[in-house]
Design goal:
Blueprint (H helix, E strand, L loop, with lengths): L1 H74 L6 H22 L2 H16 L4 H25 L8 H30 L11 H28 L9 H15 L16 H75 L10 H9 L3 H10 L5 H22 L1
């Protein structure tokens, strides 16, 4: 019995040691994996929000361009062409249905859409058109800034993504608006009902804004290309940057104004042609910028997913090793323990459990065990013949006793 107890205690200690080894391997790895997956999961959600912001900005930029074009037409007394404006509204509505909840734009877009539809329903002309469409455009610019903030593109930790996002969400839309307003103010300066809009100071101020916005676009793109680790970033942007610089150079100086002569009325047609060229180049640049930005974000998402996969595989491998150790070490010890427990009763042969328990306490148990087991060496026929030989002798002893 003492040997059985010793075997059981040894097996228990071994089990505790193996379980402790498994716990030391699995629990820290599992905790680290949980923390890592939680952290990278937050980063992945942040990247997805940024991608949603890029998707939202595409039609929103087109809406700003359509509003500035409608404003210019109304300032000249013409009826704005509804096609581009309505198409932009539909596209923004579609992307708002997909990402509006994530970016918290539902209410803002509903208000902006009502304002645009009301202005389109009764389009003003002249100075009233400039003021009315300016309210639409300012609200659209405010919404663009809101999308940039809620998607966290402008505050991205990666420097290249930050500068690229800031250019796409702030400087490019602003340059679109400023170039249109410059041309509209020049046209209004010659209008009979212009009133206070005839001030040359307004035109020069608008011209200075165009110059400053162009510089901001150029600086933002250059900083993004200077700080990026993406090999292909900038290959498409450089050509567009040169085009913007040339087009803006025809519309306004690329450097801040110093002693610049006022714009005259005869410059209206020339500025309008230059403005159209600026708009065309800016829309292409905006599309290329958003494409580059989306590519950077997609690379970030792929990298995060790869890191999550590699760490998960490594952790699962560690768990598999721990399980293998448990499978290899524990059964051997348990087998040894079971053998020790069964050895005292191994000599039982056609006997009861009580006899086996008594035999375990008998000092002669080992010898009897060997003798009893020796009968297993005889065949059944031999045992029958031995029984027949013993039976007459037993009968004689019984007769004598009687």
């Amino acid at each position: 019995m003492k040997a059985v107890a010793t075997a059981r205690m040894s097996g228990l200690k071994h089990l505790v040691a193996v379980l402790a080894l498994v716990v030391l391997l699995v629990l820290p790895s599992g905790f680290t994996l949980t923390q890592f997956l939680s952290s990278t999961g937050d980063k992945l959600q942040s990247v997805k929000a940024e991608q949603a912001g890029v998707a939202y900005l595409r039609p929103l930029t087109k809406l700003v361009a359509a509003l500035t074009a409608a404003q210019s037409a109304a300032v000249q007394g013409k009826k704005p062409a509804p096609g581009a404006l309505r198409s932009a509204v539909v596209q923004v509505s579609e992307v708002d249905n997909m990402h509006g909840i994530l970016l918290n734009t539902k209410q803002r877009w509903a208000a902006l859409r009502r304002l645009v539809e009301l202005t389109e329903l009764k389009p003003p002309v002249g100075r009233a058109a400039y003021l009315s469409y300016s309210r639409n455009i300012d609200q659209a610019l405010s919404m663009i800034a809101h999308v940039g903030e809620t998607s966290q593109l402008i505050t991205d930790d990666h420097v290249d993504t930050h500068y690229l996002g800031e250019t796409a969400f702030r400087h490019l839309p602003r340059l679109l608006v400023d170039s249109g307003r410059l041309v509209d103010l020049v046209r209004l300066s010659d209008a009979p009902d212009a009133g206070g809009m005839q001030s040359t100071d307004r035109v020069l101020t608008s011209r200075d804004r165009v110059s400053a916005s162009a510089i901001a676009v150029d600086n933002g793109l250059r900083r993004s290309m200077d700080t990026t680790s993406a090999a292909l970033l900038g290959s498409d942007l450089i050509g567009y940057m040169d085009g913007v610089r040339d087009a803006v150079g025809e519309l306004a100086p690329v450097t801040p104004l110093v002693d610049v002569e006022p714009v005259t009325d005869s410059d209206g047609k020339r500025l309008a042609a230059a403005r159209n060229k600026v708009d065309s180049v800016l829309l292409e640049l905006s599309s290329s910028t958003l494409r580059e930005l989306d590519s950077l974000l997609r690379s970030d998402a792929d990298r995060i997913e790869q890191d999550r996969t590699e760490v998960s595989i490594a952790t699962l491998a560690a768990g598999a090793v721990a399980g293998w150790l448990l499978w290899v070490l524990l059964p051997q010890r348990l087998v040894s323990q079971q053998s020790a427990e069964q050895r005292p009763g191994a000599g039982r042969h056609r006997g009861s459990g009580a006899w086996s328990q008594e035999s375990a306490d008998d000092p002669m148990h080992d010898d009897l065990h060997e003798l009893i087991d020796a009968r297993d060496l005889l065949t059944n026929g031999q045992l029958v013949r031995m029984g027949r030989a013993v039976r007459p002798a037993r009968r004689e002893r019984i007769s004598e006793a009687e």
